[in-house]
Design a protein that fits this description.
mainly alpha; two-stranded antiparallel sheet; two-stranded antiparallel ribbon; 4 strands
Length: about 190
């Protein structure tokens, strides 16, 4: 590995794939920074799991898909047209369909809590949602591939269902938020 520091960003810019430089607070960099944060939170979740937990591979795969997403975002649209790897949301849908069967039906919001794994999966979900919002901000100025937009949306759903499945797996009851203005939701 070469030097970690290059000094090329000392003036407030950073390089994109292809060599173009943009401000460090450019929406593209903000978006990728949020995806990078998401990837790190998923790494924290994995650190709570045993190495042989079957969810390790699910999350490892998602980390790779996030890296594909970041590569796409860091690549100018003209260079993207030449082909960059794109994430696949179909795998997310299979995971969701498989795990949701092990969860109770709910009609209310879930309060993030429970086991360290469930709580950190909920944290990852919120970071995924923020990344998605940043992606839409970027998308308004520069169209992103539909596959990228769909993937991050599905990923947040995967993380939500994984958190719910973790609570079920551990035999923990989820805490639900009830909207007290609606009489049918007024009791626990």
């Amino acid at each position: 590995m070469g030097k970690i520091y290059t000094r090329s960003g000392d003036e407030g810019t950073t390089g994109l794939c292809g060599g173009r430089r943009v401000d460090k607070d450019d929406i593209r960099i903000e978006t990728n920074g949020t995806l990078d944060e998401l990837n790190a939170v998923i790494g924290v979740v994995r650190s709570f799991m045993s190495p042989d937990d079957e969810r390790q591979e699910i999350l490892r795969h998602q980390q790779r898909e996030i890296m594909k997403t970041m590569h796409c975002i860091a690549t100018a649209p003209t260079e993207r047209a030449q082909g960059v790897p794109l994430p696949d949301s179909r795998q997310c849908e299979k995971i969701i369909d498989s795990m949701i069967e092990r969860c109770n039906d709910i009609d209310r919001f879930v309060l993030p809590a429970g086991t360290p794994i469930a709580a950190h999966l909920q944290l990852a979900r919120t970071v995924a949602r923020r990344a998605e919002r940043r992606m839409w901000s970027l998308h308004r100025t520069e169209r992103l591939p539909e596959a990228v937009m769909q993937y991050v949306n599905r990923l947040s759903d995967v993380l939500f269902v994984m958190a719910r499945e973790e609570m079920s797996r551990q035999g923990n009851k989820e805490e639900l938020w009830r909207y007290f203005r609606n009489p049918s939701h007024a009791t626990e």
